[in-house]
Write a structure and sequence with these properties.
Layout (H helix, E strand, L loop, with lengths): L10 E4 L12 H17 L3 E6 L7 E4 L2 E6 L14 H19 L7 E5 L4 H9 L3 E6 L3 H9 L5 H4 L6 H8 L5 H15 L10 H14 L2 E4 L2 H10 L7 E3 L22 E6 L8 H14 L1 H4 L2 E6 L8 H11 L5 E6 L3 H8 L4 E4 L8 H8 L3 E5 L2 H4 L7 E4 L7 H13 L3 H15 L4 H13 L4
Parallel strand pairs: 1-2, 1-5, 2-4, 5-6, 6-7, 7-8, 9-10, 9-12, 10-11, 12-13, 13-14
Antiparallel strand pairs: 3-4
Length: 457
Amino acid sequence: MIPVKDKITDVLLITVNFPTTATNKDGMGNYTANAAQYLMEETGWNIHAIAFRFSGQEPFEESCGLTVERIDPPRGILHYDELYNPHNFRIAASYLAASAQRAASGMRGKTAAWCHGYETGMASRVLAEAGFHVAGVVHYLIAQDLLNRFEKADDQMRKDMDEDTFSSIAGRIIPAKLRPAFIRLLSVSAPLLCKLPVPDRLELLYKLEQESLLMKSSRRIVAVSPGFGATIVRFYPGVRNKIEACVAGSPSPASGSDWPFPLRDDRLRLVMVGRPVPQKGWDYVAEALGRLESSRPDEAARVEFAVIGGLGDWGGDYSNRIYQNFLGLKKVSLAKLGEIPNDAVMRVMASADALLLPSTFEPFGLVMLEAMASGCMVLSSDCDGPRGVVRPPWGILMPFRNPRERVAELEAGINKLLSLTRAELEERGGAAREAAAGYSWRDCARIHAEALRNGQG
């Protein structure tokens, strides 16, 4: 351990983004900031966090027990999501690793390392080689992402949406039962393959390499939900004996509410939050609402839909195309709110009746707890995170394994919500709020503390 401005560093935290309250717009940043705060309260440890600096963030912050050092990202990267572009990702990972190495050179003794996300794979290796006890917190799994891309071959609606990629072609060639084994083989061979001149179209190999490094370098692995933990073991069976799962805590409800339409009791107020990428299922929602307009136009006219995220503003062709599909709706009232800070999201949820969460995979889905705490029902796919949380009567889980049935399941779920009276919606929203109260950031922090504790002696 070394003094940092007269403080002793107990935990070195490496992550892509450590947001301020004003700049917090993503689930991973929200999770990291909350888990770190409660970890300090539970243990009394001091944390030194290293992350990239984005617009609106200070290069250095210090408060009770926490020091945040933000490094400038590679030249030309202005937005958080630009880090993940093929030509940016590898150099960004190396920047984090270099910063971790610099910090490690001055730290000795009982300092433990918390490496958050596959992006820190190279950093985790540097820290492990320096003798640190590394705990890797896995918030997203590239192996699962790759399997999801393979499954595009089974999804008639998405099959012809974009140009062919390695993953879509492989999905057509490799039988569904063999895909997980093929991805396990790729994860093992990724470090070797990445030494070859890999084209940008195979950028997931670089990310898979980082993920593999994190799994190997970490003495303990923390998964962000029990279901997600099982998925990690499916692709990385070698971590079976060093993995544990936690669940995020529920936030405090917003102090006010903000709905983009005049409040009317006969309307169904739906909200959806997320990045404009296929994983989040925006295309399924657009198609389901279009079908609802065709089959039940009067009921569709009762639906108000608030869209939060970058849909139509960033994300490439998928984002723009799906936003145009939403604009083509004639009966449903649509409000595009764009990217807004987390507290503003919570105010919208405070007026909404239900959150739509039709993700094709979701390690946890912190937005789910935010909606529940706001008194929202949840209509979700049955993926890893929601499957362990969503319960009737306030929650509806949709079977999403069969891609051909996803739109029909969504339409049926929205029809169930339309069948509820205003009193029933409010009663079930209250039940969701009560369920949210059972999830504590302190419980989450205790799991992190246990994973890191071996580094404290």
